[in-house]
Amino acid sequence: MSFVNCTRRQAFRALFQSRTYAAKPAQAADAPASKAAAVPQSSCPADTILVGLNYLKGQPPVLAKPDEEYPEWLWTILEPKQHDDPRKALRAKRRIETKQRIKDENFMSTQ
After folding, report:
1. Are 64 and 46 in contact (CB under 8 A)?
2. Which residue in 8, 25, 41, 66 has the most C-beta neighbors within 10 A?
3. What pTM did the predictor assign?
């Protein structure tokens, strides 16, 4: 048994030994207000030429827009998903762990 499998097995046991289906504690009421007050900041200022996005010949260069012109969901796309049901959260966590295990096994089989 490899070292990776030993550590994974210990983590797997710990996951199921500490499994609880209790709901997460409610967050403070002012936490969402602070998120709404935060102004999204893009990685480049408006009217910056975005190199590599224009792949068609003879087209004008693609320019960055001001932050206000982008949809609101764009600024939250990198945040982790919040699951209401703990079973869904556990299933998502297991799927991520399974994908990582498969990647590890495939990598180890090439060595």
Report:
1. yes
2. 8
3. 0.43
The count of domains in the chain is: 1
CB-based contact 44:50 (threshold 8 Å): yes
Question: What angle is formed at CA 89 by the lines to CA 85 and CA 91, rounded to 5 degrees?
Answer: 115
8 falls within a domain: no
Specify whether the CB–CB gap between 86 and 23 falls below 8 A: yes
pLDDT reported for residue 107: 96
Q: Tokens for 36, please give them.
A: 């709404």
**Tens of pLDDT along 73-86?**
998 888 888 889 99
86-109 helix and 3-17 helix, angle to the nearest 10 degrees: 170
Q: Which residues of the chain have pLDDT under 70?
A: 1-40
Write down the mean pLDDT value for the chain. Answer: 77
Q: Which domain holds residue 65?
A: 48-109
